[in-house]
Amino acid sequence: MNFKVFLMISLCVLLCGCSRSYSDEMTLDELESSGLSDNETEAGQPEDVSGNIFVYACGEVVSPGVYEVRADSRVFEILSLAGGVTDEADLSCINQAESCYDGEKIYVPAEGEYEDHAYGGSVAGDSDDRININTADSSSLQGLQGIGASRAEDIIAYREKNGKFASIESIMEVPGIKQGTFDRIKDHIRV
Fold first, then answer.
1. What angle (nearest 5°) sits at the alpha carbon of residue 129, between those of residues 126 and 177?
2. In contact, 40 and 47? CB cutoff 8 Å
3. How many Å is the Cα radius of gyration of the chain?
4. Which domains, and CATH codes, for the chain?
5. How far apart are CA 36 and CA 118, in angstroms?
6. Which of 44, 70, 149, 152 has the smallest CB count inside 10 Å?
7. pLDDT, tens digit (0-9, with 9 covering 90-100), for 16-68
8. Which residue, among 109, 75, 63, 71, has the nearest Cα to 90 in the 3D structure?
């Protein structure tokens, strides 16, 4: 009888003990022994190990180039890393307090260049009247044809989960936004 009880208890402990769910509390040793690579999550997605992003500063900056910075960096910090701006720079076109995102291009125009639209890049914080799908709130998104309250919340939830949209076309990755909706809004949105 004792042997049967021992077997039952052992079986219960074994079955219950093996149902561990993974959480953020995994130790490095547990992560390594789980078979996941150093920079891969359980879902097989790459994980940003460094927390850094890459931002391109160009135009009227002293040292144009690509800079690796913390993910929470601001435009003014990038301009400082680029050696500051030249005497010809028009900083009234730049929102220096704006948060940066991975792959962003910060273009500093020369005095008078912004009004002439003589350059091909985008200016951080410019007065473009298109809706920025990476920063727009629900109310702004609902101003787009075919985007109601629930779809606007879907867009916000998608970018909170997956990060900023890389292009306007990537909005079609949001469930419920197909080619027809995109065709109606494409001229009214930007990243």
1. 115
2. yes
3. 24
4. 52-116 (3.10.20), 131-190 (1.10.150.320)
5. 50
6. 44
7. 544 443 333 444 444 444 444 444 444 443 444 468 999 999 999 999 999 99
8. 109
